[in-house]
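Example 3.2
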Amino acid sequence: MEALFHALVESSRELFELIHRPMEESYYRYEGVGAGGDRSSRIDLVAEEIFSKRLAPYGQIVSEERGSFGSGPYRIILDPIDGSDNLLSRFPYYGSSVAVMEDGQVVLSFIVNLANGEFFVKYGSLYQKGSLWHHRLKEVRTNLHARVGLFEKAYANPAIVQGLKDAGLKFRSPGAVALSLAYARYVRFVLFVGELREYDIRAGLHQCEGLHIHQESNAILVAKDPGLFHTIREILLRE
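Structure, written as tokens:
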């Protein structure tokens, strides 16, 4: 796992450096529809190549862009660019997420914020955060002073938006599901309502273990506080 973790960090560094230089115009062009059903830009495909060249020795890669390819002991769920529309709009909330699976269980999750170089890694008894530019890992601390939650895809769910508003709950909708799940311990809640794809949620839910989680066929709610969790769950079930 240690070698695989370092491969993920090296891939993320290479991708970070690429996207923080002036990107080539070709990176903004769309080049068809990926396996996940979204349009793939050139930067999505380049990011996939960067991760794949280091992850290929470890197992079968299941990517949002190319689908499944390769073989090996692990099944590696990859979202090369989580929040690619944000990246293409130069809005600083985008990243990459990787879930490594063995015998149907996630054994390692890695989520990196490519806007600032911060990453979260969980495997075995280790669950920590770090920076692409420093070797020291830190404990992931729960923020008890959060004022807002994150509601991904809020624009498509006006009734739930109204329910949260009526309950006096503030939220933001930044547009990168895995990254938002990685920050679940820092915000009041994370809510996503829409199509659930393993590229979006495998790594994030692994990192949310120990929090209150409600999952349906088309929705995920994560919160630290049981009372808040119950309030939002009732809004979700009602709508």
